[in-house]
Amino acid sequence: MSIQSESALAQAYELIENGNPAQAKVLLEDALTADLDNDNLVFAIHCCSFWAETFASLGSYPPYEGGELLVNQWKKFTGLVSREEQTLEKRSMEKAALKNTVYAFKRGIYSCALSKFSAIAEEKDPVFNSDVLRKAGLCHKRLGSYELALSCLTKANSIYPAQPAVLAELADCYDLCGETKFAKLMFREAFFLDAQKIELSNMDSPLINSLAEKVREEGYSGAELLEWIPVYGTLLDVFNIKRPLRAQEVGRLKQDIYARENELKNPANNEALIKPRLISMYLRLIDYYMIEKESVKRIKEITLKIKLLDSKLYKKFVE
């Protein structure tokens, strides 16, 4: 890459990080006229084009909606980047340059989104306040400020406790901070509460992304993938930090198991989602029996239910 092109990219990155992709695009296009075959410049221009319209429209949105727009667009942007990475070896684009470009946009987008969420006044609704703090925590995390992220997420959880999305974000931050024990416990709780409320695209930690990849290798995706994560997390001994259940929780767990078993009998219901959810409940009940040193007979009864529900899974992990 020529010195002029490197200089243009450096200046563009500064503009991008300050939320000015349109200005960065003009600068890069000017540099491209003198270096027409530079794929690094072409990729950066493509990214600027993707974001320029979004930033131009931000002024018409209230803070919350503006922050949401940026975070949601980031998910689409990562799809664009993934496609570029797949063709990287066939082109002259430098991997380091791609990473630097993506990093600049990451700084710009999440800094701007954070300013939007931080500008929102606290309201009486604890659900809304918790959600705003969760999203501010996500922004801090993506900017590498894990302690600030944990502070936001801890407050979000205290305002409106036991929300799967908040617990998963907390777990993600804990793993990134090296607090694996807390991460495992919170991921286990979050996925058990409601796997469908968790956005894997928000997760950055090796712990959960490695587990999710193993579940994908089993052929699952989308909503099914989310439901199977707590099952494989338990059976692969990833979610191996457990806590005793209160009597009220045990009673509710048994009621939920009964309800799911009845749902499974109805062919009109979605077995693909109910089955892993039920197996996850069985495994949690087994954990409870083991912690409380209940009779082996009870444990065997639940284990047999798993075998009858999914013999292949049973053979894979038990026999």
Task: Using brief descriptors, characterize the structure shown.
319 residues; mainly alpha; 15 helices; 0% strand
Provide the gyration radius in Å: 23 Å
Q: What would you call the structural class?
A: mainly alpha
Give the CA-based shape: elongated
Low-confidence stretches: none
How many H/I helical runs? 15
Instruction: Tell me what portion of residues adopts beta-strand conformation.
Output: under 5%
What does the largest sheet look like? Answer: none
Q: How many β strands by DSSP?
A: 0
Record the SSE blueprint:
Layout: H1 3-17, H2 21-32, H3 39-57, H4 63-86, H5 95-118, H6 126-142, H7 146-159, H8 164-176, H9 180-194, H10 206-217, H11 222-235, H12 247-265, H13 271-291, H14 296-309, H15 311-317
Describe the fold and architecture.
The N and C termini lie far apart (58 Å). The chain has 15 helices and no strands. Helices cover 75% and strands 0% of the residues. α3 (39-57) packs antiparallel against α4, α5 (95-118) packs antiparallel against α6 and α13 (271-291) runs antiparallel to α14. The protein is mainly alpha-helical and 319 residues long.
Summarize, please.
With 319 residues, the chain is mostly helical. It contains 15 helices and no strands.
